[in-house]
Amino acid sequence: MPLVTPSLAVSNCTLPHSPLPVRDGSLCSVPACAACGRLLPSLLLIGSIKTGSTLLWGRLVDYSEGAIDTGRTTDKGYISKKEKDFFGDPAQWRRGRGWYERAWPKCPASGARTVVGIDATPAYHVWYDAPKNMAAFYGRALGQLRLVWMLRDPLKSYGGDWDRVTFDAFTAPKLNRSRETGRERDTLSAERRL
């Protein structure tokens, strides 16, 4: 078994187009990391707020009949089924190659149907080091990755986000105050009845 270093130097991983033998003797007929025998993502879904990336991810997973694998849930909770944040978040990146590889299932056995790993982390476009980290991790196989980047008109997005943020900021405190006022009123009514 090759030594996997947490420094994430240039990757020994390959994403072959043809079946490749892995450690357990099975053939990996999907893009995978031959060195670790894991089904690594070959599809990266990147998006912004309100671009539909979560909807697209959900549809791909729900309607692919198992052909899309999201990996396992990490310590970040259920959101990590969709968003691994590995290539962008410095804290996740420092966990190392082995940590990310273990988040993905073993390569399918010979003759198994094709399965594609997907990492749908919308924030990869805002993390400065994400492209560099992807290049370091995948090495020469980087060109075989498929990126889907969900975009929308920035002015419309800004307006929608502004409405959401200002509405929430405006209504939440007022709702909390009205709840407190309601509780106080109920308490006073109960005291008067005594």
What are the defining features of this structure?
disordered N terminus, 194 residues, Rossmann fold, 36% helix, 5 helices, two-stranded antiparallel ribbon, extended, single chain, P-loop_NTPase, four-stranded parallel β-sheet, 10% strand, alpha/beta
Could you characterize the architecture of this molecule?
This protein is 36% helix and 10% strand. It has five helices and six strands, in the order E-E-E-H-E-H-H-E-H-E-H. The longest helix is centred in the C-terminal third of the chain and has 40 residues. It folds into two domains: 133 residues, Rossmann fold; 42 residues. It has 194 residues and is of the alpha/beta class. InterPro entries: P-loop_NTPase.
Q: Biggest sheet, strands in spatial order?
A: 4-5-3-6
Q: Would you identify the CATH H-level superfamily of the largest domain?
A: P-loop containing nucleotide triphosphate hydrolases
- Average residue pLDDT: 73
Distance between the termini: 78 Å
Largest sheet, in brief, is: 4 strands, parallel
Number of domains: 2
Query: If you compute it from the alpha carbons, what radius of gyration comes out, rounded to the nearest whole angstrom?
Result: 23 Å
Unreliable segments of 5+ consecutive residues: 1-32
Secondary-structure element order, as H and E? EEEHEHHEHEH
Anisotropy-based shape: extended
Percent helix: 25-40%
Tell me which CATH architecture of the largest domain applies here.
3-Layer(aba) Sandwich
Number of strands: 6
Structural class: alpha/beta
Q: CATH topology of the largest domain, which one?
A: Rossmann fold
CATH class annotation of the largest domain: Alpha Beta
Q: Helical segment tally?
A: 5
Strand content: 5-15%
